[in-house]
Each structure stands twice: as C-alpha cells, then as structure tokens.
Amino acid sequence: MPETRESMAYDVVIVGGGPAGLAAAIRLKQMSSDISVCLLEKGSEIGAHILSGAVLDPKALNELIPDWKAKAAPVETRVTQDRFWFFTQSSAIALPHVLFPPLMSNRGNYIVSLSNLCKWLGQQAEALGVEIYPGFPAHDLIVEDGVVKGVITGDLGVAKDGHHKDSYTPGMELRGKYTLFAEGARGSLSKQLGAKFGLQEGREPQKFGIGLKELWELPAAQHQKGLVLHGMGWPLSNDTGGGLFMYHWGDNFCSIGFVVHLNYKNPWLDPFGEFQRAKTHPAIAKMLSGGKRIGYGARAITEGGTQSVPKLSFPGGALIGCAAGFVNLPRIKGSHNAMKTGMLAAEAAAAAVQAGRAGDALEDYDRAYVQSWVAKELYLVRNAKPLWSRLGSLLALPLIGLDMWTNQLFGISLFGTLGHGEPDFATLKPAAGSVKIAYPKPDGHLTFDRASSLFLSGTNHEEDQPVHLKLRDPGIPISVNLPEYAEPAQRYCPAGVYEVIEESTGPRFQINAQNCVHCKTCDIKDPAQNITWVTPEGGGGPNYTNM
Ligand SMILES: Cc1cc2nc3c(=O)[nH]c(=O)nc-3n(C[C@H](O)[C@H](O)[C@H](O)COP(=O)(O)OP(=O)(O)OC[C@H]3O[C@@H](n4cnc5c(N)ncnc54)[C@H](O)[C@@H]3O)c2cc1C
Ligand code: SF4
User: Fold this and answer.
1) Pocket flag, ligand 1, residue 135 (CB < 6 Å)
2) From ligand 2's centre to the CA of 235, what distance in Å?
3) To test ligand 1's pocket by mutation, which of 114, 172, 378 has the most ligand atoms within 8 angstroms of CB?
C-alpha cells in the first residue's frame, strides 16, 4: 500500500530560519495578517545552525522593524574601532583607511551574534502569527506539472540500513501557493532547483569560502568592546584568498574567525589548520592570551557577488538570501542583504496571494532586486573576488581598493565586469606537484584539534540513521581522489567527518556523518562532485550559542 503522508496547506512556505527566511516571514505578516505562513528550520531551534561573524549593517533591520531597539533586539555593541592589518609571519602592518572607500566603513554598524539575532527575529515572527517548526528539515521538493508546490519534511525513525524503526514517522507535505527557499549558502533543495530550472544559466558560477569561527571569553582588561579587526596575508600563501576577522562584543566576548576561499589550489591545504596557525601570530596571540575558548563552528559563505546571482524566481517560488548568494565579499557582510531580499520576495508573494494568484514565477521579485540597494551595493564591489582570484593577495589588494574607489566616486571600473572562471571544485592541482604543508601540533591553549573543537559546537545526530553525505560513486574517494589529490576531504572538512583508514586490504574511506556541522564545504569542493549533502534527521547538527 502506498504510504500516506500528512499534508498541510499555506499561502507561503519558507524553508530556512536564518535572516532571509525570518525577514520574509515577518514582512509577509506585516503585509497582511490573513496570509498564512509556515517556516521550517532543520536546527533543533531557531539560531542553532546560524554561524556568522558578525558585524551587522542595520539597514535592512531598520526597514523591517524600525523600533528594534525598543523591542530589545540583541543588537547592542556599536563598532567603535575599525582596523585592517596585513600580516607577515612576524609583523602586522596596519593599512590606512584611505585605501578603502566609504562603502567599506563600519561606522554605524553593530557587532552581534547572528544566531541570537535570529532567535529574536523568530520570536517577532511568531508574535505576528508565523508558524515556525524547528527540527523539521525540508528534505524533498514537491514539483507538479513543472511548478513547485511545496516541500516534504524528512522522515523520522529510519535506521542506517534503511529499515523503519518503531519510531518511524513519514515526513509531512507542506504545500504553499509559493515556497521561498532561504537555506543559506549551498542549500540542498536550492541546488536541485538551480539544476531543474536552469537558474544559473548565463551567470558566472557561484563562488564560496569556508568560514571557521571560535568564540572566546577574554580577560576584562584585554577586551576592547566595539573593536573590529580584519586581516589578510600570512599564514595563507599569496595565491590563496581569505583572511582573519576578530570582533570584540558583549560581555568580554571575542568572535575570531578565518575564511579560506574555496578556489584554493593546493590539495594539502587544511583550512582548519590555517585558522589555528593564524591565531599564533604574535599580534593575535597577545590579544587572546589568558582567554578561554567557548565555542566553535564552521559554515560556507557565498563569494560570487553580482555576477553569480542566479535567476531568483521560478514557477511556485523563489530563492532568497545566501541560497542565491548576496554576500558583499570585501565587506564580509551578507546578513543585511539576506534580510532585504527576503523582504522583497515577501512583498512580491504577498501581492500575488492577495491578487488570487498561485504557482507562477514571482518575476516582480527579480525586478525589485535589480532596483534595490542590494544590487547597487554588490555592483560596486563586483571585481574584488575576480581580481583576488587572478592576481593573488598582494597585487589584488591595491587594485581592489582602486576599483572600489572609482566605482564609488565615478560609477566606473577600469576592469568592466570580470568573470570568475572555474567553479571551486575544479581548481585543485594534483597532490604530487603541490607543496605539502606542515601544521604545528595544537597546544590546547591557543590552538586546538578538531575533536575538542567539535565538542564545543554541540553537534549531535541520531547515530542510527542513513548517512546524509551521499556518494554518487563510493569508489571515487579511494580510486580517484586519493591518488590524484591525496583525498582532500580529510583536510577541508572542519569536523573530521572524512577519514582514509589504512587497512591490511588497502585504504578505506570512512564517513563519520554524526560529526557534520552542516557547513556544506564537501558538497562544494569535492573535485569529482561526488558528494551530495542532504538533510539528516530533524534537529541533528550543531547547537550554536552566541555564534
Ligand atoms: C564565517 C562567516 C562570517 C560572516 N560574517 C558576516 C558578518 O560579519 N556580517 C554579515 O552581515 N554577514 C556575515 N556573514 C554572512 C552571513 O552570515 C550570511 O550572509 C547570512 O547568514 C545569510 O543568511 P541566510 O538566511 O540566507 O542563510 P543562513 O544564515 O545560512 O540560514 C539558513 C538557515 O536555513 C536552515 N536550513 C538550510 N537548509 C534547510 C532545509 N532544507 N530545511 C530546513 N532548514 C534549512 C539552516 O539550518 C539555517 O538556519 C558571514 C558568514 C560566515 C560563514
Ligand atoms: S561533512 Fe561536509 S558539510 Fe559536514 S562538516 Fe564536513 S565538510 Fe562540512
């Protein structure tokens, strides 16, 4: 007998409770309290899977909830100092502010925990009548006659070998006149939608970085509340993009993180190892000394900018936030753009529902995006990533500065609009010709190993469930990736999910799926594009606090 699923119908279904999804939900209810809205979140609670820097440009929040201060939003630490350092191994050279045009300034911005801000946005949404279901991942699309009609949540109680346990409960259908996908960078359903509707056609490939972050508590005497510090250079080689961020906020909190652009070439590179090494720089180690690490996590970040923004709408729905990719890379900011695009899509969806429409493409949203301050902001910095990828950090830095200045002052670029070239999975060189990188052993005070880090992420998955990292061809890791690239998954995964175990019969590829922090790096960087990340059982994954 075919399995029957429970089904619920809404005007709008939203997948993902990050800034984009929550802003969309709130805006829909602001447009009309009669519009029924449901929001699904795979984390155990809203905010549990949110990891960001984060310096918040409050532009979108001001538009969405102008009285956010009176409503006690957790947005309290104003930026008071804004520094940019270039690191060599032993020194930190402060770069003058004149290098950067006003669009890079952090004046008026706040240092926040985006995870906490999302919790608060979730409360605002619920107060307006949005139905929020944390612990419910959207696992599959409902597509009928070429129209997206909603999503199906993941089944519960399926064992590793696929048999149904006593606790088995089939996933539910959530049907919507429109479904907004707010899954963030490299969303699993957004990826399927991109392929199904050709959303990336005529656009540059999306580009990504992996961002690793730790939360520290510093001795009060060392804490410089409001300090924003960005750095580039050492320990990354000149041809590897990325850099460090450090934000002092709240009660002696210090968010420190490291981004490595995923178009790196050397398969021996270990982003986690680079982050640990970056903290040993004398200027950084001094700032962290006597402090205590209390949090860890990792997440992919979109970097393609305006050239990579896909077609946003398709029949029955739209991509919002980083599911489409609206991060301003030189500013390392995307949450204001995520919120604003969520609001624009919500406005288009509300107007459509009120006009009695359903299931068509929300083209008004595509048009509104093109006219919006999000598109304008991304256009000004469009050459930062391509210049960095082509020229390396040293040469690119002054040219990026110059390009942003001419764009901001005169509305022109000497470079026109540069493309990105290859997607990130295609950039690795063979291991044989690449320089092996030796990473120092962790000291347990300033630098750490993956296991103790993972512990601080609060990651937890039901162990007896199907592996949610799907290999198209289980043979590729050992037969292709190992000889060619020394199986880079062992190094790029920030959670130690992938291991190559030497056995008497030869090497074996092991997947420790329960460690996964849902960063999506493997789905992006695997050179054979052999790994597909799908949602695990509901509520599994990290449990971030104050991240
Ligand atoms: C290390 C790092 C530092 C950053 N620093 C800054 C900064 O300082 N300032 C700034 O403005 N931006 C920063 N960003 C970027 C910013 O975090 C993103 O632009 C922003 O979080 C995007 O919001 P979003 O709602 O689109 O996606 P996300 O924040 O990724 O949220 C997506 C949500 O959807 C959920 N989800 C995903 N798939 C499903 C599914 N299938 N079913 C149910 N739920 C699902 C996820 O669990 C998550 O809660 C940083 C990013 C990183 C990684
Ligand atoms: S398995 Fe993939 S998604 Fe999970 S933590 Fe590792 S790289 Fe990230």
Assistant:
1) no
2) 23
3) 114
The residue among 428, 336, 346, 330 whose CA lies nearest residue 379 is 330
pLDDT at 383: 97
Q: Which residues contact 231 (CB under 8 A, 6 or more apart)?
A: 84, 85, 86, 87, 92, 243, 244, 245, 246, 278, 284
The CB density around residue 118, as the number of other CB atoms within 10 Å, is 26
* pLDDT at 36 (0 to 100): 98
DSSP 423-446: -GGG-PPPGGGSPP-PPPPP-SSS
Question: Residue 537 carries which DSSP code?
Answer: S
Within 8 A by CB and 6+ apart from 20, the residues are 182, 184, 320, 321, 322, 323, 338, 339, 341, 342
Cβ of 520 less than 6 Å from ligand 2: yes
Q: From 260, 516, 523, give the residue whose CB has the most ligand 2 atoms within 8 Å, as the site to mutate.
A: 516
Residue 56 CA to residue 62 CA, distance in Å, equals 11
If you average pLDDT over every residue of the chain, what do you get? 97
Q: Is 450 in the pocket of ligand 2 (CB under 6 A)?
A: no
* Residue-level pLDDT at 450: 97
Residue 296's identity, in one-letter code, is Y
Whether the CB of 189 sits within 6 Å of ligand 1: yes
DSSP 443-495: -SSS---HHHHHHHTT-B--SSS--SEEESSTTHIIIIIHHHHS-THHHH-TT
371-401 confidence digits (pLDDT tens):
999 999 999 999 999 999 999 999 999 999 9
533 lines ligand 2 (CB under 6 A): yes
Percentage of the chain lying above the pLDDT 70 cut: 100
| Whether pLDDT at 4 is above 90 | no
CA atoms within 13 A on the CB side of 539: 9
Of 148, 120, 144, whose CA–CA distance to 132 is shortest? 120
DSSP per-residue letters across 301-363 = EE--GGGG----EETTEEE-GGGT---BTTTTB-HHHHHHHHHHHHHHHHHHHHTT--SS--H
- Please give the C-alpha separations between residue 231 and each of 222, 234, 305, 391, in angstroms, as whole numbers: 19, 9, 21, 18
Q: What's the pLDDT at 98?
A: 80
Q: Atom 7 in ligand 2: which residue has the minimum CA distance?
A: 493
Q: What's the CA-to-centroid distance between 532 and ligand 2, angstroms?
A: 10
- Note the pLDDT of residue 1: 54
Question: Could you tell me which of 479, 494, 495 has the C-alpha nearest to residue 527?
Answer: 479
**Encoding tokens for residue 178?**
């429109």
Residue nearest to atom 11 of ligand 1 (CA): 333
**Centroid of ligand 2 to alpha carbon of 329 (angstroms):** 22
- CA triple 493-496-498, angle to 5 deg: 75
β pairing state of 164-169 and 531-533: unpaired
- Of 329, 308, 345, which is closest to residue 385 (Cα–Cα)? 329
CB of 497 within 6 A of ligand 2: the answer is yes
Residue 408: other Cβ atoms inside 10 A: 15
Q: Has residue 97 got a pLDDT over 90? A: no
